[in-house]
Prior knowledge:
A: alpha+beta; 2 domains; 7-stranded mixed beta sheet; B: alpha/beta; Heat Shock Protein 90; 4 domains; 5-stranded mixed beta sheet; 5-stranded parallel beta sheet; about 15% strand
Amino acid sequence: xxxxxxxRTHLCGIxxxxxxxxxxxxxxxxxxxxxASHAPVAHLLIFFSSDYDPEILNAALTTxxxxxxVSGCSMSGGMAPSGGFEHGLVAVAFPAxxxxxxxxxxxxxxxxxxxxxxxAVRALRRxxxxxxxxxxxxxxALCLIDGLANAEEAVVSAIAWALDGIPLVGGSAGDDxxxxxxxxxxxxxxxxRSAVLLLIDSDYPIEIFRSDNFEPTQRRFVVTASDExxxxxxxxxxxxxxxxxxxxxGLKPDLLSPLSFATHPLAVKVGGEYFCRAIRHMNPDGxxxxxxxVEEGVVLTLARHCDxxxxxxxxxxxxxxxxxxxxxVIGFECVLRRLDxxxxxxxxxxxxxxxxxxxxxFETYGEQFRAMHLNQTFTGIAxxxxxxx
Amino acid sequence: xxxxxxxxxxxxxxxxxxxxxRINAALMAQxxxxxxxxxxxxxxxxxxIALEGRVRARTEELTGxxxxxxxxxxxxxxxxxxxETANRSKTRFLAAASHDLLQPVxxxxxxxxALGDLPIGPEASAIAGQVERGLQTIEDLIKTLLDIxxxxxxxxxxxxxxxxxxxxxxxxxxxxxxxxxxxxxxxxLRCADxxxxxxxxxxxxxxxxxxxxxxxxxxxxxxxLLAARTRPGACRIDVVxxxxxxxxxxxxxxxxxxxxxxxxxxxxxxxxxxxxIVRRMAQALGHDVTLDSRPGRGTRVSLMVPLAERxxxxxxxxxxxxxxxxxxxxxxxxxxxxxxxxxxxxLRNWEAEVSVHRDLAGAAAGYATAGRAPDLMxxxxxxxxxxxxxxxxxxxxTLSGTPIPAIVTTADHSPEIELRAxxxxxxxVHKPVKPAQLRSLLTYMLA
Lengths: 389, 447
C-alpha cells in the first residue's frame, strides 16, 4: 500500500476509506475530506490501530462527525482493497439509502448478564422491526467485541440467542499482539470490556461466510490442567503446556512466538468438524493463554496449514456466485493468518483477492460467526451488487 | 550400568503411568461435564457448533418439506375430494335430521301458546313473548342453515317444470298480508292469470318468500309490490318496496351471509341469511337476480325466469298423496296469532298446504277464494267475542255439502266440550298440542 488516504465508492453506496496516516487527528481529517463530497453518512464503522491515542481519536471523530453514529474498535492491522496494512485506520461509511442501521454497546461483558444482553438485543431488533419480528433477506448483524475480556463465547451466545437466526459475523478487537488494551467506540464514548452490535437492514443480497486453511495431524494433546475463565492451559498431556507443545513442533519452549502459534495451530474436533483454538501467548510459568475458552479434558489436535490463498479464493468465489457478484466484503481475519501469510510470502496472493472482491476489515483476536467464537479464520459478510428485488 | 538400567526404566514407566492417569482423569472429567447442563465458555462454544449444525439441518429439512409439499399436491386434491364427499353426506344427514331438530322447537312453541291462554301476569306474558321470539329465530336459523348447506353440497337439485306464477304469487301476497297490514303497509300483486315459467316450484317459492319477507321487514311506510312482467322469452319477477333502500356501498354485500340492513324499528330482526339463500337458490336455478335501489326511496329486486308453456290441465293431476300429509289442504281457525303461527309452521313442515284464519268470517272468505273444501279443519274451540270453533265446522260443512273432517283444539279440559266435539264427529286435542300426536291423528284422519 502506497500510503496516503484512499477512498472507494461501492455500487451499493457504501464508501470505504483507509489511511496509514500515523496521527489520529490527521487521519480523521483525511477521512472527513474523503467523505465530504458525498451524501451524508448514516453510520460510520471504524477499525483503527491501537497506537492511535483512543482519546484523541474519539474526540476528533465526535467533533468532525457530529450527529453521525460511529462504532469502532482497535485492531491488529487493517484490510483494504489495496491489501493489508499494519498501522492506520479503515472506515466503512454506510449511506442512509439502502441501509437501515440500529446499534448498541454492551458493557461489562466480563461479567455478562445473559438475560439482560438478550433483552437489549431484542430491544435493538424492535427498533428495526417495530411491527414485530419479521424476516428480511438483507438483514444481518455485525459485532465488535473486546478481544482481551475473555468473554466472546458468552457474548456471542447471548446475542445469537436474541437474534434468532439473523446472520451474525464479527471480530474481536486487537492491539497489535501487545495484549495490553483493546478499546471500542460507540455513542461518542470510549469503551473497554465492551461489545458493540450493529443490526443492519440492507436492500442488497448478503451472505456470511467463514473460511480456514488447515488440516489435522495425528498429534494430539489432552488438556490436563487449565483455567477456563482466564483461557489459560497449564498442562497438556500432564506436562507443562508450552513444553509439551514446543516439543511436538520441534522447538525449544523459549523460542515459541506468535509465528509458531500461527504456523502450528491447535484444533478441536466438534460435531465431526475441526475448529482452530489459537494460542495467544506463552506465560512465564510455561502455561499457554488462548484466544478462546479451553476446558480440561479437551483433546487438542496439532494441525498444519493448507493453501491459504486457494482456500480463501474458493470461499470468496462461492460467495460471489451466491450473491450474484460481490460488491464488497466486510471481513474479520485472524491476526495469526496474516503472520502465517507473511512468513510464507503469500501477501501478494491475499492482496490480489482483497482487491478483486473489495475486502475491508481488520485483523482480529477472534472471529464470530452466528453463535460461534472462532480462531484463525477469515470470516465476514459479502454484500452483493444487485438490489434485492 | 546393567543394574541401573532396570531402575531407570521403572522410574520412566512410573512417570508414564502417572501421566496417563492424569490424562485419563482429565478426559473422564470432560466426559462427565459433557453430560452436565451447566457449562463454561467452552461448553457455549460447543453448543454454538451444535446450533450451527442444527441451522444447516433445518435448512435441509425445509428444502425437503418443500419438495414433499409439491409432491403432496395430488394427495391434497384427493383429500379435498374426500372431504367434499363427507360434506355431502353430512348435509344429507342434516337434511334427514331436520324434522327431528325442528320438532322440539315446534313443541316448545305450542306449549308457549298454551301458556298464553292461561291467566298469567303481564310480566310473565312479556317473558313468554320473548321466549316465543327466541324460538322462532332458532327455527328460522335451523331451516336456513340447512337450506344453505343443502344448496352448497349440491344435495338440492332443481327439478325444472312449468310453474303457474299467479297461484304462487297470490299465495305469497295472502301470506304476508297480515304482517303488512300490522305495519300499515299495502301489499299488491300484478300478474297475468296464465303466466307460466320454467322453474322449480319449491325453490322459486322460497326465493320469492325471502324477497317479500325482506321487503316487508325493511319498509316502514308505503307498500310492497309483487309483479311479473313478460320479456321476450322470459319473465321478470319484481319485488318492489318503498323501504329504506340499500346504499351503493352496501350493495355488493347484501347477498352475503349475515349481512343485515337497518330494519324499520318495529320489525322483527332478520337473520341476515335471506338474500344469501336467494342468491344460492337462484344460482342453482340459473335465474339472474338484479338489485336496484335508491336509498330512502326503495328497492327493487328482479328475478329473470324463462317462460314455459302452460301445462294442459290433465298434465297436472293432484299428486296421488291426497291421503298423506304432504300436499293436504288444511284449514286452521285460531284466534291467537302466535299459536296460529306455530301450528301453521308445524303443518307446513309436514308439507301440508295451510290456510289460517282467525274467525268464521275469515274462514268463509278463504273457502270462497279456494273454491273448494279443505281436506281437514283444525279449529280452536274458544274464538274471539265468545264465538266457538264448532260453529265454523258446521258452517263450512253446510256450505260445501261435505262432512269435512275436523279437529278441535282447546286448553279447556271440561267434559262438556268433549261431549260437544263428539256430537259433531270432531276429534278433540288438548292444548298444548303435541306434534307427534297431532301428526299421527292427521295421518289417520286423512288416510
